[in-house]
């Protein structure tokens, strides 16, 4: 014998049994009819990563009961995208997607620097909604630059040689491009060139140095050259918006 409830609630079932001699007895059975439920959990491999880097995660959904569910989900509170095995395209925040019971593997990619909780929301086809908050921080790809020599010194009729080395963040997987421009104080009009290129870049103009993290170059006076002392600042920027500045004293001395 099987019983299927048609509505949610608590009550009792009464069974009446009558014997062949006409004696009847009632059997009362309490019963509680509930919605079929589900559990879900989201697990991230780490609690922080760099902007535009991939962080692996899993979503596990388990149905509690006999009802067959379908599920839909979304995530919010952050600017990010996720890649799922079941989806051909990346899924942005607040976009609803379908998800199956069991374990789903994905990758989370933060699209801006942020320290905001990620909230995943899952809704079953019977209307039950559950959510989970993930504490995750998206970091800027900060870097440092070492430059030599420091200070820069040469006769005023000469160009000044310099080298740079960019120390990238550890364990970085993405390809990053770097940009450079210079400004100066008390040095007149300057420009720089980099080894391997014939281009001469005036101060104030930004130049794409690609993903080359070390190189050398020349610092040149433009126009009428003369003995000067001052400061040149090298402004580095990466394609994610991280910046680093290095100021160096310069002496174009009279020979």
Structure description:
With 255 residues, this protein is mostly beta strands. Helix content is 0%, strand content 58%. The protein has no helices and 23 strands. A hairpin with a 4-residue loop joins strand 11 and strand 12. The protein is rod-shaped and about 130 Å long. The mean pLDDT is 91.
List the helices and strands and how they pair.
Blueprint: E1 9-18, E2 24-33, E3 37-44, E4 48-50, E5 54-64, E6 71-76, E7 80-84, E8 91-92, E9 97-99, E10 102-110, E11 118-124, E12 129-134, E13 137-139, E14 144-148, E15 152-155, E16 160-167, E17 178-185, E18 190-194, E19 201-202, E20 207-210, E21 214-221, E22 228-238, E23 243-253
Parallel strand pairs: 4-13, 15-23
Antiparallel strand pairs: 1-2, 3-5, 5-10, 6-9, 6-11, 7-8, 7-10, 11-12, 14-16, 16-21, 17-20, 17-22, 18-19, 18-21, 22-23
């Amino acid at each position: 014998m099987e019983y299927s409830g048609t509505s949610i609630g608590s009550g009792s079932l009464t069974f009446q049994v009558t014997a062949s001699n006409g004696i009847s007895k009632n059997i009362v059975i309490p019963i509680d009819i509930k919605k079929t439920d589900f559990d879900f959990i989201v697990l991230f491999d780490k609690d922080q990563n760099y902007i535009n880097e991939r962080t692996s995660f899993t979503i596990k959904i388990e149905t509690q009961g006999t009802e067959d569910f379908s599920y839909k989900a979304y995530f919010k509170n952050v600017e990010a995208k996720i890649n799922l095995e079941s989806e051909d395209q990346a899924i942005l925040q607040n976009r609803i997607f379908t998800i199956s019971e069991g374990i789903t593997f994905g990758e989370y990619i933060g699209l801006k620097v942020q320290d905001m909780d990620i909230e995943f929301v899952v809704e079953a086809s019977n209307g039950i909604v559950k959510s989970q908050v993930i504490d995750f921080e998206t970091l800027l790809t900060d870097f440092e630059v070492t430059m030599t020599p420091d200070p820069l010194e040469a006769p005023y009729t000469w160009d000044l040689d310099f080298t740079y080395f960019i120390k990238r963040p550890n364990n970085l997987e993405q390809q990053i491009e770097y940009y450079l421009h210079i400004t100066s104080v008390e040095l007149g009009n300057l420009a720089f060139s980099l080894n391997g290129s014939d281009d001469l870049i005036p101060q104030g103009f930004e130049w794409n140095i690609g993903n080359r993290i070390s190189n050398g170059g020349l610092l040149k006076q433009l126009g009428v050259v003369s003995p000067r002392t001052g400061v040149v600042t090298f402004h580095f920027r990466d394609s994610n918006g991280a910046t680093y500045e290095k100021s160096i004293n310069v002496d174009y001395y009279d020979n």
